[in-house]
Amino acid sequence: MGKVCKVGHLEYILKNEGTCRKCPNWKNCPTWKRRIRKLQAQKAAKTVIILILAILVVALGLLLGMLFKTVTSHIFAPQPHVIWPEANFKPAVEQVSQTREFETQEEQETWEMIEELMPIPSLSPEGPSGGYYYRLNADDMMWIAKLVYVEAADLTFEEKVAVASVVLNRYYYEDERFNRESVKSVVIQQGQFKSVMNVTQDNVNSVPECMKAVQAACKGWDPTRKEFPKGAKFFFFDTFIDGNEVTKLQGTHIFTIGRLHFSEDPIEY
């Protein structure tokens, strides 16, 4: 017990996990104890290093994830609300072509070619234009699509577009009768339309034409402008008016598209 094991003896003991014949009291050997403590310290140090590295990897992953989310949110951020007053709106290319004095015939022809190639947003009762006349974000478009779903899911595509156009006409053009704080506030204003609060995105997706109709309306297609230059702001169902016609009902000018009847003012029954 008083003797100290040599390194060779200690390695034999550690390797075979048994007793050294030359040192029967090896468990009390100070050299063995020091070596065991050293090995345990090394093992503990390795464990701590691995744990620190794992924490650093997780933190780096979270940091990169936040950075990626920030960058992509800026790149793919939805378009902000843009209100283009109908009387003052002119696409940039159209403004330049109308106000610019061209120095050469070739320059004028170049601008005319650009006008032909570039989609110029415009309002039309006949169909959507080449670009978005009304720029809404995805949430606002979904609110309108929900309304189209509850009001016109089983109607024709033109009727769906006309319903979406009513919302846009209320939101984009000043009228004290409507809550124009947001597209949502227009859609859910009490006493105006059917409730959309229980309509889910899955419901809207089940009828793809609902969102397509909203997109067409945002590209400037407003079927109600065939009769109303500023677009309709009200619609209703009524079975005793048939066909695509213009009529009078209690002094209100009515324009019918399919099974829906549109007007600039509310119907007085």
Q: What is the CATH architecture annotation of the largest domain?
A: Orthogonal Bundle
Number of domains: 2
Number of helices: 9
- The fourth-level CATH homologous superfamily of the largest domain is Cell wall hydrolase SleB, domain 1
Unreliable stretches (pLDDT < 50, length at least 5) are 77-99
| Radius of gyration, whole Å | 37 Å
Order of helices and strands: HHHHHHHHHEEEE
Strand percentage lies at 5-15%
Distance between the termini: 113 Å
Overall form: elongated
Using the coordinates shown, work out and report the CATH topology of the largest domain.
Answer: Arc Repressor Mutant, subunit A
CATH class of the largest domain: Mainly Alpha
Q: Would you tell me the structural class of the helices and strands?
A: alpha+beta
Strand order within the widest beta sheet: 1-4-3-2
Main sheet overview: 4 strands, antiparallel
Number-wise, the strands total: 4
Helix proportion of residues, in percent?
Answer: 40-55%
How would you portray this structure in words?
By secondary structure, this protein is of the alpha+beta class. It folds into 2 domains: 7-75, no CATH class; 138-263, Arc Repressor Mutant, subunit A (Orthogonal Bundle). 48% of the residues lie in helices and 7% in strands. The protein has 9 helices and 4 strands, in the order αααααααααββββ. The protein has helices spanning 7-16, 30-75, 92-99, 105-117, 138-152, 157-172, 183-188, 201-206, 209-218, and strands spanning 234-237, 246-249, 252-257, 260-263. Strands 1-4-3-2 form a 4-stranded antiparallel β-sheet. α5 packs across α6 (157-172) and α6 crosses α9 (209-218). The chain is elongated. The termini are far apart.
